[in-house]
Amino acid sequence: MRIHSTQAGALLALLASGLTLVACHKNEAPPAPFPSTYSAPAAPALLITHATILTGTGRKLEDASLLMQDGKIVAVGEEVAPPPQVEVIDARGRWLTPGLIDAHSHLGVYPSPDVWATADGNEMVDPVTPGVWSEHAVWPQDPGFETARAGGITSLLVLPGSGNLIGGRGSVLKNVPSTSYQGMKYPGAPYSLKMACGENPKRVYGKDGNKAPMTRMGNVAGYRAAFAKAKEYLKKEEAGGVEERDLGMETLVGVLKGEILVQNHCYRADEMETMLDVAKEFGFKITTFHHAVEAYKIADRLAEEGVCGALWADWWGFKLEAFDGIRENIAMVDAAVSKDGARGCAIVHSDDPYGIQRLNQEAAKAMAAGRRAGYVIRDEDAIAWITSNPAKAIGIGELTGSLEPGKAADLVLWNGTPFSSYARPDRVYIDGVLRFDRYTPKPVESDFALGLAPPEEQEAGTPLTAPSAAIPSSAAPNAEASPTPAAPPPAAATSPSEPATTEPAAAAASETKP
Q1: pLDDT of the residue at 28
Q2: What is the structure's pLDDT at 208?
Q3: How far apart are CA 198 and CA 185, in angstroms?
Q4: Can you list the positions of beta strands (E) in 248-359?
Q5: What's the rounded Cα separation, in Å, for the pair 150 and 170?
Q6: By the 8 A CB rule, do 365 and 314 touch?
Q7: End-to-end CA distance of the chain
Q8: What SS3 state is found at 405?
Q9: H-helix or E-strand spanning residue 427
Q10: Which of 393, 348, 391, 389 is nearest to 367 (CA)?
Q11: Interacting residues of 413 by C-beta distance below 8 A, sequence separation 6+
Q12: Which of 85, 173, 241, 283 has its CA 20 to 30 A from that of 389?
């Protein structure tokens, strides 16, 4: 086919403009893959009055109020003026706290029921797998999300397991119903890298004697080799580009740049000190040591270096590296003070689908153990272990974790003090939206839970509702659409809430699922 000169000129101009366009965009970073699709629904203004409020910032307010509007906290204090036509909840006798945050969860990647088909938390084909991301294995239909929400959990960090030295990326999720993990992904939250010390990696790979690491020497050599390679990858990247994209190296480079946080599974004090030195060698920071049953031995150094400890209240002894665990661990990490006066960053985590439902009781156990040992632990300080401290550790402390104006309206209204075995969340709000109400039946949110609905509810035309506790409606908080406070409700009809009987050895085994 012949092309006239005018047509040829136009074609050349078009090609040139295309090449210019490519050149302009060549050095621009591509959009982040798998972006969050979460968008907070519209939330009406709400004023909660006459509550005992633990703010998560070290304050306890008696007979106080909180106003939220458009998904944000507007005001907190003893005198909060209600806007016109706002719904008012009289919370007399109840306690209000920030939404609880679990800094170490495997919900979705080890969902319920516990079967091989959905056990997707450990890519144990190589001890170094930074290229895998936990979110790609999250099953949003895991019923554990809903039961955790009923326990007051509003956000959580879902991590890979600890079978590998470097296990991959972890993602922060909002605990909201969704058909995809993207619909749960916390907008603006950084990724975390899961690393593991000690027994787990050497047991997984070295037990048969044919693959490293077999020893703790091999563990440390593995971390160093991986980050040495990442340093070289970063140099090439900064020099103008790499020849072939390496997804694992991209994650480790993100750590070196400070864009990806490091969450390090580590039990023994000596190994934590080794890991702090590895981090210094390669110029990155460990954000949090997880489990860390011997953190109390180096609490001063952790406080000095600004490293958090995400800890169990009383798990110990289920393997040799856990034998020096003590119940006072959390209190001692919390009580440590840096030279600059910064307090230690203690966190109560679950690492367990049952413990996450009662994270407040785990904190209460740790608080009781600390008090018995002579530590002065106030309610307003201990609440930080399950709210503002984990928010800081997983990179969302500027967005949520405390009841302050401008932060997300993630909060829990309790039937009394949360530090009690009788405590139950009455209502749970996420971005100002009521996501759990103990006294109001709601539609089933999980396909798996839907299959458990009673047969009589499965008849045509009958709305399906999730099973709920038979609690008198009179126990619900009193609400009205008026600036005038409602009359105080009668005392909540409650019964003791039994702590989960979790077998530590079984739970620890779930970390690696070899």
Answers
A1: 56
A2: 83
A3: 31
A4: 261-266, 288-291, 308-311, 346-348
A5: 23
A6: yes
A7: 65
A8: coil
A9: strand 425-430
A10: 348
A11: 48, 51, 89, 91, 94, 95, 96, 425, 426, 427, 428, 429, 477
A12: 283
DSSP helix, strand, coil percent of the chain (3-state; round to 5):
30, 20, 50
**Cα distance between residue 195 and residue 128, in whole Å:** 9
Left (φ > 0), alpha (ψ -120 to 50) or beta: where does 471 sit? beta
- DSSP code per residue over 242-277: -SS--HHHHHHHHHHTTSSEEEEEE--HHHHHHHHH
Please name the amino acid found at residue 181.
Y
Mind listing the domains of the chain with CATH numbers? 46-99+409-512 (2.30.40.10), 107-393 (3.20.20.140)
Q: What is the pLDDT of residue 171?
A: 98
Q: What angle do CA 473, 363, 90 make, to 5 degrees?
A: 30
Angstrom distance (rounded) from CA 294 to CA 267? 6
pLDDT given for residue 489 in this prediction: 40
Q: What are phi and psi of 191, to 5 degrees?
A: -75, 160
Determine the pLDDT at residue 455: 63
Q: What is the DSSP string of 360-376?
A: HHHHHHHHHHHHHTT--
Length of the chain: 514
Q: Tell me, what's the pLDDT at 457?
A: 58
- pLDDT, averaged in runs of 10, over the chain (514 residues): 44 43 48 93 95 98 97 95 91 98 98 92 97 97 95 98 98 97 98 98 90 96 98 94 92 98 98 98 98 98 98 96 98 97 97 97 98 98 98 98 98 98 97 95 75 58 42 45 38 35 39 43
Q: Which two tokens stand for residue 444?
A: 């089933």
User: What is the pTM assigned to this prediction?
Assistant: 0.85
d(CA 502, CA 425): 21
Spatial separation of the C-alpha atoms in residues 328 and 100, rounded to whole Å = 22
With tokens 């609490």, the residue in question is: 299
Q: What does R_g of the chain's alpha carbons equal in angstroms?
A: 25
- In DSSP terms, 87 is beta-bridged to 46
Cα–Cα distance for residue pair 315/507, rounded to 1 Å: 10
Strand partners, 194: 168, 263
Spatial strand order of the sheet with 308-311 comes to 100-105, 153-158, 166-174, 192-196, 261-266, 288-291, 308-311, 346-348
Output the pLDDT for position 243: 85
- What 3-state class would DSSP assign to 482? coil
